Amino acid sequence: MTDMEPRRRTLLAGASGVVAAVATLGSAEAVAAFVAPASSPLLAVGSLVIDLVPGWVKDLVIALFGTNDKLVLLIVLGVLVAALAVGIGILEERRPVVGSIALALVGVVAVVAAITRADAGLDWAFSSIVGAAVGILVLRLLVTRLRTWDDATVADEARPVVGASRAELPRRSFLVLLGGTAVGALVVGVGARVASAGAVAVETIRKALKLPTAAVAAPPVPAGAELGIDGLTPVVSANDSFYRIDTALQVPNIDPSTWSLKITGMVEQEVEIGFEELLALPLQESIITLTCVSNPVGGDLIGNALWLGYPIRELLASAKPKAGADMVLSRSIDGFTAGTPLEVLQDEDRDSLLAVGMNGQPLPLQHGFPVRMVVPGLYGYVSATKWVVELEVTRYADARAYWTDRGWSERGPIKTESRIDVPRNGGRVAAGNVAIAGVAWAQHTGVNRVQVRIDDGDWLDTTLATAISDDTWVQWVLQWDAPAGDHTIAVRATDAAGKTQSETPVDVVPDGAEGWHTISVGVD
Ligand SMILES: Nc1nc2c(c(=O)[nH]1)N[C@H]1C(S)=C(S)[C@@H](COP(=O)(O)O)O[C@H]1N2
Ligand SMILES: [Mo]
């Protein structure tokens, strides 16, 4: 015997394969948790097997194991995966690269299984692709180290050295990588799987939830609110294209039956309300445009939806804020906080809602399920707390919100702004009649006038669509007889208070961008 005992080498190669498989599954689960919890290759392949297995096998399994059939499937899959992994490890050690190719093929099967699921998107492929790539990397590293160790053993036996053997260092480096990867991938994978299972479970509850109809319905969207121009942003934003901004790495999974909101702090009477109780209250609908303070001039961190919820002012009234309080610190289950002026939330003329519905659906998980705040006229970071669980009545002098501690203003009223949607910035259009159109907003004040300037011309009044309300953005359009050449188009809005947007560009930090959205177009 001149090298490592063959039995031991095979065993360690097999172990390398198993650890590569654990790394594959662990990283795939981690990616799935972010991309789409249901895209886990483990679930996808399992579901594919259930679909493919002939009926008599299913019947037999159910006859033998009853309601444990899924568990049996998972155990069988687990054993198969382990056997495959051992095989791939041994293959890679005997015929370098061949094992990696086999692992890549398994990845392809997982990708196909994932993207052919009923509600899958193409992004469901990500988790399997990343998983296979990580697995191959781990496999190659492990087998290379195993060979180095083996070669050193050969050298030791051929020409022994005094003291520590040459094989000691490679041996250690192989074992550390093997153990470290196994432990790391298990921790990450199991954590991600648990989180994904939570998201899938909460999504199921959400889908089954039926919201009550509003006691106070929103007036219908006026017919003239939607100009219906190609490329112009729709006046009501669909839930799945609504902008999303938050600090949540993992979207909180809240089972509504466990949700409650507490009103605490400077109040005569602490109040706590559960989800069922909230739904039993007379709910109100309101169409409100949310905007992010980080929206640059011309940006799209803004969206308009029909919200269903209970007026926050009513809940506050039942808690009876004490004199001296001037701020409500709303807290998300994940620790995020926003500081909203108490008087804004108490304002009789403002539909500040504890919202449960968005465009006729329960809030999507990403948009705060089961309950969030929506306040007309204030940027999201000071008002729109998602996954909200506490309203602490306090004072600006005593409490600070999440973003106030990070360089943003304590208060965040939305600034009047306007944006050109068509023609596209940098686009080309044919000479002749061209619609210049976009949106403008001055939430809770209202937009009075939108003007466009072409090149160095005069400011031209545009036609405003019918506004849904002062709490929403409004579309506008100007028909332009476009002459050939390169042109610059700028827009500015004037709000109902008579204030016209300032020309001077101002950065988003600390309290929102300012300036005129300006685009270039080529006319042929
Ligand atoms: N829990 C929580 N709520 C939050 C945030 C957050 O980071 N965490 N971000 C706020 C910000 S900055 C904005 S602009 C709005 C965005 O809401 P949306 O993602 O539903 O569009 O949510 C607000 N609510
Ligand atoms: Mo924001």
TrEMBL record:
Question: What Pfam families is this protein classified in?
Answer: Oxidored_molyb
Q: Which domain of life is it from?
A: Bacteria
Boundaries of each Oxidoreductase molybdopterin-binding domain copy?
A: 249-397
TM spans, by residue? 71-91, 98-118, 124-143, 174-195
Question: Gene3D superfamilies from the xrefs?
Answer: 2.60.40.650, Oxidoreductase, molybdopterin-binding domain (3.90.420.10)
Q: Which UniProt keywords apply?
A: Membrane, Transmembrane, Transmembrane helix
Q: InterPro entries attached here? A: Ig_E-set (IPR014756), OxRdtase_Mopterin-bd_dom (IPR000572), OxRdtase_Mopterin-bd_sf (IPR036374), TAT_signal (IPR006311)
Stated name of the protein: DMSO/TMAO reductase YedYZ, molybdopterin-dependent catalytic subunit
Organism of this sequence = Plantibacter cousiniae
